[in-house]
Amino acid sequence: MKHFKSFLSTHMEDFIEYRLQLGYSGKAMVHHLKIFDRYVVKKNAIWASFNPLFFLEFRTSLNYENRSKNMGLRMVKMFFNFLIRKDLIQENPLLEIAQLPKNQIVPFIFSREETDLLINGIIKLMRKTEQFYLGDFSAYISFLLMARCGLRISETLNLLKINYMPEERTIYIEKTKFKKDRLIPIPKSVVAEINNLLNLRRLFFDKEDNPLLLVKGNQTKLSKYYMDLRIKEVIKYINLDQPRKVIGTTNFCGPSHHSLRHYVESRTMPNVILNAKYIYENTGDCSNNNKIHSA
Fold this sequence. Notes:
The chain starts with 8 loop residues before the first helix and ends in a 12-residue tail after the last helix. The strands form two sheets. A three-stranded mixed beta sheet has the order 1-6-5. It has a three-stranded antiparallel beta sheet with strand order 2-3-4, with no helix packed on it. Mean pLDDT is 85; it is low at 271-295. It has helices at 9-21, 26-42, 52-61, 66-85, 112-124, 133-149, 153-157, 188-204, 224-237, 257-268, 276-283, and strands at residues 104-106, 164-165, 170-173, 182-185, 245-247, 250-252. It contains eleven helices and six strands. It has two domains: 9-102, Tyrosine recombinase, N-terminal domain (DNA polymerase, domain 1, Orthogonal Bundle); 112-237, Intergrase catalytic core (hpI Integrase, Chain A). By secondary structure, the protein is mainly alpha-helical.
């Protein structure tokens, strides 16, 4: 399947194949190169068109935030480095183009009261039918682990039953976001709820084949999409739904799963003045983007 239509199409396909062989994912590459490819077609560009001004005008034409513009131009720059290695051009016209300043990220942080409200809302919205009950209970445990222990959503979804040690009241996280292992203490109340989940699984399944801790009624993995639906539903239910806002060069995030992790950070460091830069750099990305506060 051909992704591109400009005179650079063959070279772009070769570049993608080269990057795939190195182990990189092709989705982001194709996305950014498609945008550039359409711009090349629109401008009827030829080899002689590729000067720094061409790429500055291309960047200006993108209706994205600075961070996304930088990512797109970085991919195009790598593509032109590839063209140099193929002896198609002598120098990279993007070499001297500086990145745009990134927007400051201001994450949404739940207060203690809002966190409790959210957890209670999740319980009230749990569907009691056989088809959905186990999946909703597993989602509830995932939210508990994020809100009470500071786990990332991906860490909760990938937990194995053997990672949970009820007697020690700990959870072992293998290969976190930064490729480190962690041993997480968990409160007695969360231990009790996880034990309830495991007892429920014994009622649901005659034989358990899935080693994951959190599963749905058909023994399939609890997905992030499933969790996204649950968080959106409960945020609306407790009247905390807020859209992501961009004001100037600042992104104000809306509530998301990650807001629960930010809440745990705010509770474990009560003497730290929470600012957007500190939270963003120390707890990871913010993808659903309005406020910073702590209880």
